[in-house]
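Researcher: Last one for today. Full complex below.
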Amino acid sequence: MSWSDGERYALERAGCAAGDNVRVPSTQRSSQSPSPARRREILETAARVFAEQGYNATTVRKIADEAGLLAGSLYYHFDSKESMLEEILSGFLDELWAGYDEVLAAQLDPKDTLAALVTESFREIDRHRDAVAIYQKEARQLAVQPRFAFLAESQRRFEQVWLETLERGVSAHAFRADLDLRLAYRFLRDTVWVAASWYRPGGGHSPEQIARQYLSMVLDGIAVPG
Amino acid sequence: MSWSDGERYALERAGCAAGDNVRVPSTQRSSQSPSPARRREILETAARVFAEQGYNATTVRKIADEAGLLAGSLYYHFDSKESMLEEILSGFLDELWAGYDEVLAAQLDPKDTLAALVTESFREIDRHRDAVAIYQKEARQLAVQPRFAFLAESQRRFEQVWLETLERGVSAHAFRADLDLRLAYRFLRDTVWVAASWYRPGGGHSPEQIARQYLSMVLDGIAVPG
Amino acid sequence: MSWSDGERYALERAGCAAGDNVRVPSTQRSSQSPSPARRREILETAARVFAEQGYNATTVRKIADEAGLLAGSLYYHFDSKESMLEEILSGFLDELWAGYDEVLAAQLDPKDTLAALVTESFREIDRHRDAVAIYQKEARQLAVQPRFAFLAESQRRFEQVWLETLERGVSAHAFRADLDLRLAYRFLRDTVWVAASWYRPGGGHSPEQIARQYLSMVLDGIAVPG
Amino acid sequence: MSWSDGERYALERAGCAAGDNVRVPSTQRSSQSPSPARRREILETAARVFAEQGYNATTVRKIADEAGLLAGSLYYHFDSKESMLEEILSGFLDELWAGYDEVLAAQLDPKDTLAALVTESFREIDRHRDAVAIYQKEARQLAVQPRFAFLAESQRRFEQVWLETLERGVSAHAFRADLDLRLAYRFLRDTVWVAASWYRPGGGHSPEQIARQYLSMVLDGIAVPG
DNA sequence: CATGAATGAGCCTTCATTCAT
DNA sequence: CATGAATGAAGGCTCATTCAT
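Model: Here's the assembly. Have a good evening.
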């Protein structure tokens, strides 16, 4: 398998200019504007603990301990445990969609689009490992709550983007015609995102390297053999 | 892609004679001796709710409600919420290993072994959908507890079996030689098990059909072309 | 001043057959039906403590202590601290309106109606002293909450009943024509209900005796006529 | 009913020279020396919010918000939330007693004294509406605390003054001899002060007008004399 | 077998208060 | 004078678990 220009484009893309976001974050600094540094620090701590122990199993005390303050003090920065979760997830999704939108705007051919999306996904896993892990574990249950409706919306758009790409690929004879596309979509989606459960940033493989390997396995499976 | 004898063997296997279990369940009828029927009924209810809402988010009262008794009454049948979880997971793993062991005992060639393992996995997903979903979500955190050491042990053996199969396949020139085998292992493992998160028993596709599709995607990716 | 038949009717009325209630209590035993005895016991304790210390200043621990159980155990009987408050207040208002409705149904002349209403009020103070005290102190702030809308509704009907009685009395030349009726209404209303703040059941005066004295002052004044 | 000289005296009295205070306020400028203007502004805000929401239900942050500073900044001006309350209540009582003392010093006859006291009370309601409302709601619970002993002391003196006036009136055949004086005292006291719960300064009626109406009802009753 | 009632530990959250800047 | 950030003590509530009946 050799890399097309499109794939190269995707794999080399470095900057992440914000495209049109999927949603406007409802938590734009809950009315106050406390020091963003401390705030982000706490949020990253929360994300890590949520990812490690699960959202429900995580106590705010634990977060506070790890962040070096008392449980009550968290509430100076955040409205609630849930609002931390919301901010973590929406922050991740916003960036993800910024990346995806840029890929889509490039109007690559189906195979290159798929490669670029996969690569972008691994980049997001690299950048938001904790958020992705949380997302994997909690999204299904959260999505039914009005507050987390943006998760459901994101899932919907996600499916649409990937399915369209697959369909375009089938039409263009880039992907096998005998695929059950919904199954293939799930296969791809899970295959990529579950990686967050074992991926460790800075662990020998760059996101791009992993993406390349995954693509090699995945693509040569669903591509029309040549 | 055509099906080898080994694959056919795997796909047709119906019975599930218990092979040598990985572990002896410590919870064989927690000291009382209630009607096994009611007991299983409750356990299945618990599994369903655990799978739907997550173990932590599930209250013992919710289980009781769905099973048609009061929360306190559960403790006649089970020692604790945790012991229900343990029984659910160990029951699933015991059956899984019974299936795997039978496959391994057949000493098929690498490609057929892999096919048979994948097929067996989808059969277990079909039979223990809730348990698999719970396993996916909770195993990592549970495995560190002594009580759930059998999870870690199972994971270890799981990795060993799959890696060996892959290695044998590379040696036999059945699988591509340029694979990062650990990556390929994770890829396979996740790809198969995550299916539990969307699979619905009796939903148009039999486990064997899904297995075949997955194998088609996966195998033609990792198989040596040509 | 001598007592008319109507007043005598009011003062002698003993039984309290439930007329048409103002509202259906939304808290009809929150889905369970735990022993009504213990439930009422706790509720009376809560009412007493609320009346003594104020609703906000009362901790559920305090209620539990006084009722002889642990704080958490209250939640077996009640959904929340607020639901106890609701039940206390609605129970009182339901009985009050049962009494008022019976008085109104008797279609007495204005002066007798007023006397009967005042007497009935003192009877309710006697029976629901704590509830009345709570009502006095908290109603204004509670009434704006949807959950306690029945308070506002009751106040509205209350004002209507009393104002009508006063107006009929003025028309019938039973009450002075030079009164500011809204002022007189408030005067009467407060005068009667504030008594709950100092009234002690079984303290020498029966509700009927106190009602008689109050009526004497309200109707005829404290000054020596002439 | 016509107005005696004494009543006229009472109704026309405008100035409010401070007589001998009941107590020396312990909070005279809590150790700092901030601008008295800002201080009073904050105190009035606090009084308003206390009156609206109740002392316990009022957060120090709410006061700060309404006063246009941060919660912590209040502590530059005041020692504590409680000290604000104390200052509000003592300020009101000091002025009230200044007025009462002046009335008493005039040595009017019982009926005129009573009229003057009532009128003075309505004037205080007009001037210190919030403080009176707070007093009504919180005094009972506060009075037991050493810090608020001045409330109990004031109540004691209050009762003494009114009871004496009533007794003098009965002796002088100005008031009915068949009254239960303690009951009459409570009747009068409540009747007057509860008005604070609905009185709105600048709402059509001057304090003197309301006082006149109340006196008319209290002294002569609402019934047409027979 | 099941219920009703209670326990007690722990959770999220609130809030008066402090204090360095 | 005021702010930003934190403290620490409660407070309301949940929930797994127990146990007499």
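Chain B is about 65% helix and 0% strand. Confidence is low (pLDDT under 50) at residues 1-33 of chain B.
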